[in-house]
């Protein structure tokens, strides 16, 4: 069983605060790390797919970094807005495993206006 | 493009009954994966279908079975339901044999009483 851990489990911030969360995964035999944003009653929405050590991806106010040697990824949100409130999931995949994902349990973010 | 659609959205079953959940993948996708998300946990991989065959399977008992049709839609069947099968069941679609971006449906919430 491959362990993917996310921290913190939940986070409450004020509008305008910047925040970050962590995803830890096995550093051996890595293929890809996926970040998803999941609003209540909606489908998980893909944010980033990262495959290379040192990868940095950005989409608007959200960015992510990847360290495959030590087995972690950070997701940053700059200037949080209430619409950023969601659960953020990371998923790890192995080579030649055709999108079989190992998910963390997610970080639930609540942004207060 | 309707994206990934799942039906039904909610259902309630009694212990010992059987249930069938359905998934239509995103247009152009040929691979369907099923995940179970129990309360407080991340999604767990059940199995994956490609070219109408089960390509890989997670650590779930034989009570969980599936099918993929020629139009790539898929069904998840669970027999002899247990209380512990109560969960959100997610379907993900992707393209082909490579690790690529996966798109998720909204899920089916199954409650076993």
Report on this model:
The complex is a heterodimer of chains A (113) and B (113). Chain A is mainly β and 113 residues long. Chain A has strands at residues 5-7, 10-14, 19-24, 32-38, 45-50, 56-59, 62-67, 72-77, 86-93, 102-103, 107-112. In chain A, strands 2, 4, 5, 9, 10 and 11 form a 6-stranded mixed β-sheet that branches. Chain A has a 5-stranded antiparallel β-sheet with strand order 1-3-8-7-6, with no helix packed on it. Chain A is globular. Helix content of chain B is 0%, strand content 50%. Chain B is built from no helices and 11 strands. In chain B, the strands form 2 sheets. In chain B, strands 2, 4, 5, 6, 9, 10 and 11 form a 7-stranded mixed β-sheet that branches. A 4-stranded antiparallel β-sheet of chain B has the order 1-3-8-7, with no helix packed on it. Chain B is globular. The A-B interface holds A 1, 4, 6, 31-32, 34, 36, 41-44, 46, 49, 89, 93, 95, 97-106 and B 3-4, 31, 33, 35, 40-45, 48, 50, 55-56, 58-59, 90, 92, 94, 97-107.
Distance from first to last alpha carbon of chain A? 40 Å
Order of helices and strands of chain A: EEEEEEEEEEE
**Percentage of helical residues of chain B?**
under 10%
Q: What Rg of chain B is obtained from the alpha carbons, in whole angstroms?
A: 13 Å
Annotation, overall tally of beta strands of chain A: 11
Given as residue ranges, the uncertain stretches of chain A (5+ residues, pLDDT < 50) are none
Low-confidence stretches of chain B: none
Write down the overall geometry of chain A: globular
Q: Helix count of chain A, per DSSP?
A: 0
State the helical fraction of chain A.
under 10%
Biggest sheet record of chain A: 6 strands, mixed
Strand proportion of chain B, as a percent range, falls in: over 45%
Report the β-strand fraction of chain A as a percent range.
over 45%
